[in-house]
Design a protein that fits this description.
Helix content is about 55%, strand content about 10%. With about 120 residues, the protein is mainly α. A two-stranded antiparallel ribbon has the order 1-2. Strand 1 (about 85-90) and strand 2 form a beta hairpin.
């Protein structure tokens, strides 16, 4: 039960579930999920099924792309937030991610100009 709780509360679960449903929808469609259209059904049933399939065929690729993008974004964010290890003479020291990146408030070093050249105004 604890492992199921860990899976469901995982940050990757919603996007992973959507991506799984999208893939299953397309696999079922490829394996003959549209067989309802071959049967002799009332026109309203056939029209309703066709509208559902059309909406699903249009919306599932969009949902799949958004879910995949969310998974990649979360993975990259978690990977970048991992503590950076620096080695020194005394051993490994953990540096928080905020210190690993250059501070934008500090002025950056500019290239010195060669003598005899001037910048255009």
């Amino acid at each position: 039960m604890e492992s199921l709780k860990k899976v469901v509360t995982n940050q990757y679960f919603p996007a992973g579930a959507v991506l799984t449903v999208v893939v299953l929808f397309w696999v079922v469609g490829m394996l003959g999920g549209l067989s309802l259209l071959n049967n002799n059904q009332p026109p309203l049933t056939t029209l309703t099924w066709m509208l559902f399939v059309y909406a699903a065929a249009v919306l599932t690729p969009l949902a799949g792309l958004l879910a995949a993008g969310d998974l990649v974004r979360r993975w990259r964010r978690n990977r970048a937030a991992a503590p950076v290890r620096e080695t020194s003479n005394e051993g490994a020291v953990e540096v928080p991610p905020s210190h690993a990146q250059p501070n934008p408030s500090q002025p950056t070093a500019t290239k010195p100009q060669r003598p005899g050249r001037q910048e255009a105004a």
